[in-house]
Amino acid sequence: MSDLGHVLVLAGGLSHERDVSLRSGRRVAESLREVGVDVSQRDADADLIVTLRNDPPAAVFPLLHGVQGEDGAIQQILTLLDLPYVGSPAGSCRQTFDKPISKGLLEKAGLNTPPGVVLSQSTFRELGAAALLDALVGRIGLPLVVKPSRGGSALGSSLVNDAADLPSAMVECFAYGDSAMIERKIEGSEVSVSVVDTGDGPVALPAVEIVAESGTYDYHARYTAGTTEYFVPARLPSAVADDVAQAAVRAHRTLGLRDVSRTDMIVDSSGTPWLLDVNVAPGMTETSLLPQSVRAAGIGLGELARDLLAAAVKRHAEA
């Protein structure tokens, strides 16, 4: 048995990504048991704080996705309870989860992100949607990607090839939040790079290349087996592979992230990486990207999760 003591995996919550979170939690808990860790899994519900105070675990591995899991809320609670946990500090989670803020920070650090704008639902409604969208298409061009400013798993996201489809894409986006990010679609290879740090500094794992059967890596393509083909490591020239790895580590450092992150990007025909999104709580399901990178690196998922928990315990003790 591991000498970590009893640890807790948090999964579930009330966000739109609850099902993904539960699947991630089960996968990590099972992987930890396989390497001898005493672990239990529970939901984030009204009894959570009382349970954590009455029977504090040695460490917590939060696998809550979306609001509550990635916006810094659960991290703030764990800090208030003085519990070691895997993942980024609350403030770093907040600024990363807010895509316009993280986009600005990444651009300031010299990283490439697609040209785009952010529109609130009230602006869209009150200032004349038709004229606003005409101006948007005229400025950025087509095709466009519309996505909620806060959220994950591609929920509420749409690819717009025709200007006539833009209004419905905006309405769908606003079903998942009150602000939309509209960016030019960058043509190229879609890749994802996970970064892990078990105490010796952030390291990029092998990039995953994503080829969705439908042409769009949406929620269905992400979590339905057989609908997406993955290449690990990504089919990139070695120099480009080095560039995407460096970009992911730079994004991790720029946003003040810790332990684990995943950066999604497009590599265009010239080999330039364009950063699309950075995730502070990457999925751990059977079809998720980080576990594929871990496997390609020759590491067991349970081994990595155990080492991340151990690093969190050590960090907490030293603090």
Provide an overview of this structure.
Pathway: Cell wall biogenesis; peptidoglycan biosynthesis. Belongs to the D-alanine--D-alanine ligase family. Keywords: ATP-binding, Cell shape, Cell wall biogenesis/degradation, Cytoplasm, Ligase, Magnesium, Manganese, Metal-binding, Nucleotide-binding, Peptidoglycan synthesis. This protein is α+β, with helices and mostly antiparallel strands. It folds into three domains: 7-87 and 312-318, Rossmann fold (3-Layer(aba) Sandwich), CATH 3.40.50.20; 94-112 and 186-299, D-amino Acid Aminotransferase, Chain A, domain 1 (2-Layer Sandwich); 116-184, ATP-grasp fold, A domain (Dna Ligase, domain 1), CATH 3.30.1490. It is built from twelve helices and 13 strands. The chain has helices at residues 18-34, 48-54, 73-80, 90-97, 99-108, 121-126, 129-140, 166-174, 219-223, 238-254, 289-296, 301-318; strands at residues 7-10, 39-42, 59-62, 116-120, 144-148, 158-160, 179-184, 189-196, 203-204, 208-212, 228-231, 260-267, 273-279. The strands form three sheets. Strands 8, 9, 10, 11, 12 and 13 form a six-stranded antiparallel β-sheet that branches. Strands 4-7-5-6 form a four-stranded antiparallel β-sheet. Strand 8 (189-196) and strand 9 form a beta hairpin.
